[in-house]
């Protein structure tokens, strides 16, 4: 095959075929698959994005947008195509009382730092803020306040998108809603998000965070269900963790406040089995709370686990089958099956707060996220974990569950078809309209 020349592609940013840049774009946080692109386009404007998409269409190449590359299994990679790196498109524009206009390559950490200067915050933050705005809006973006506000894609006022045909368009729930709904949680199939307008609310000054440990998963879920109904806490999560004494089950909840409206600890702790000798209550600034994973990241960097493979499966189960699913996967799970710092994140969300058509969740009034943060010490162990993830996925589907496809679960065309269900038809129509030459994320396109 003749070598592809990129001499006709002029960018304000940078187009690179440097082996180091190529190697970087062929990796992701998952560290499981590596697909080698022909070039990496480091874009600095919407015009750059148009230039790359037009060039790719004219030369029969596929383009994959990349935010921070924190996907687990190649979602932001482009085999023999162009990786469109948005990390330099990272300005925070207007911040007004109720919204912010932000470039898609901005990390949530940078966005929050900017909005907090105005005493404001996005409603929903992911646990880790090193992800990009465009990256999580292209997948969903779930966090501890999702039980109140939905996922991040449910909290977008409008988007500027360069569609696959190279045209810069604005879309919202009322302006080109077909595009809006095909881009949010659309994994970059129809267009590249270059800018988003996101609603803001008053940021709390302080956070009272409470951690309670239970000996069984059933106790944890019973408390989570009760608290979900009561709306006692602003933040609601939970974890299953390895310990020397076996698995422990952690309720992780928080109440947000700004003085003088301080929460009453007795009310917060009422009936949740808090044991002062075992459990923890702490008071943090909102920023300390939002960046609470930074310490863990520093620790994982020190042990090398931040760079090892991360076969993380993310699943959603209907409440009615969550107990069965968790019992089944925990039955013969060993600590080694999760790796040294592994854990399982699990928390409930009421389905009525979720409205993004492509964010596919079980048909149930309440769903549970069950996400395993697995750390593999080698490639073969990662492969075994990926196979185990696939078995978990099959079990989940039999129990009415779905995947959150940012994770490391092998997904064939048929899986995508099942996953998308009725949402496939409008997505396919949007792809045909906005990416008629099939440039974007070609490997995700389904046959009609
Ligand atoms: C430590 C850690 C913690 C995490 N915690 C959470 C969490 O709490 N909640 C949660 O929901 N997820 C979480 N995730 C998963 C994370 O949200 C996703 O992996 C997300 O995609 C990461 O954003 P990114 O910028 O790295 O996206 P990338 O991995 O770069 O891209 C993800 C997908 O979106 C597409 N894409 C990226 N940018 C654009 C764009 N501008 N326009 C169109 N398409 C685009 C890519 O092609 C790809 O398909 C976590 C991941 C890690 C590593």
Automatic annotation (TrEMBL):
Cofactor (UniProt): FAD
UniProt keyword annotations, A-Z: FAD, Flavoprotein, Oxidoreductase
Domain FAD-binding PCMH-type, residue spans: 33-203
Keyword Oxidoreductase part of the UniProt annotation: yes
Keyword Ion transport set for record: no
Cited Pfam families: Cytokin-bind, FAD_binding_4
Family: Belongs to the oxygen-dependent FAD-linked oxidoreductase family.
Transmembrane region(s): none
UniProt-recorded name of the protein: FAD-binding PCMH-type domain-containing protein
Domain of life from the UniProt record: Bacteria
């Amino acid at each position: 095959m003749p070598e592809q020349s990129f001499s006709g592609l002029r960018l304000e940013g940078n187009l690179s075929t440097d082996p180091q840049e190529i190697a970087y774009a062929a990796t992701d946080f998952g560290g499981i698959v590596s697909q080698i692109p022909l070039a990496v386009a480091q874009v600095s404007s919407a015009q750059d994005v148009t230039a790359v998409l037009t060039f790719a269409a004219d030369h029969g190449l596929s383009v994959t947008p990349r935010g921070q590359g924190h996907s687990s299994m190649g979602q932001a990679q482009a085999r023999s195509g162009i990786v469109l790196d948005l990390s330099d498109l990272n300005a925070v524009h207007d911040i007004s009382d109720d919204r912010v206009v932000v470039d898609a390559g901005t990390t949530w950490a940078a966005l929050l730092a900017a909005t907090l200067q105005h005493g404001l915050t996005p409603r929903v933050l992911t646990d880790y803020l090193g992800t990009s705005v465009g990256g999580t809006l292209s997948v969903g973006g779930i966090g501890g306040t999702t039980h109140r506000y939905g996922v991040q894609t449910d909290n977008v006022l409008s988007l500027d998108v360069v569609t696959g045909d190279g045209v810069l368009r604005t879309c919202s729930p009322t302006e080109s809603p077909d595009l809006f709904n095909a881009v949010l949680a659309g994994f970059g199939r129809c267009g590249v998000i270059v800018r988003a307008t996101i609603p803001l609310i008053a940021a709390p000054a302080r956070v009272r965070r409470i951690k309670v440990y239970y000996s069984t998963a059933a106790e944890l879920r019973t408390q989570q269900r009760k608290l979900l109904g009561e709306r006692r806490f602003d933040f609601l999560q939970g974890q299953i963790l390895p310990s020397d004494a076996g698995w422990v089950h952690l309720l992780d909840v928080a109440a947000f406040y700004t003085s003088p409206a301080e929460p009453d600890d007795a009310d917060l702790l009422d009936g949740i089995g808090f044991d002062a000798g075992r459990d923890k209550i702490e008071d943090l600034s909102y920023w300390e709370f939002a960046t609470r994973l930074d310490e863990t990241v520093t620790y994982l960097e020190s042990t090398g686990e931040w760079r090892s493979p991360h076969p993380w499966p993310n699943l959603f189960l209907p409440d009615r089958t969550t107990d069965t699913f968790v019992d089944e996967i925990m039955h013969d799970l060993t600590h080694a099956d999760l790796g040294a710092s592994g854990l399982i994140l699990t928390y409930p969300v009421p389905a009525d707060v979720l409205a993004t058509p492509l964010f596919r969740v079980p048909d149930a009034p309440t769903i549970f996220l069950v996400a395993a943060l697995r750390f593999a010490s080698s490639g073969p162990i990662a492969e075994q974990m990926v196979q185990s993830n696939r078995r978990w996925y099959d079990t989940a589907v039999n129990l009415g569950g779905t995947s959150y496809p940012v994770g490391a679960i092998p997904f064939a065309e048929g899986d995508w078809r099942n996953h998308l269900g009725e949402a496939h038809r409008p997505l396919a129509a949007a792809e045909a309209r906005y990416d008629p030459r099939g440039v974007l994320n070609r490997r995700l396109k389904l046959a009609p």
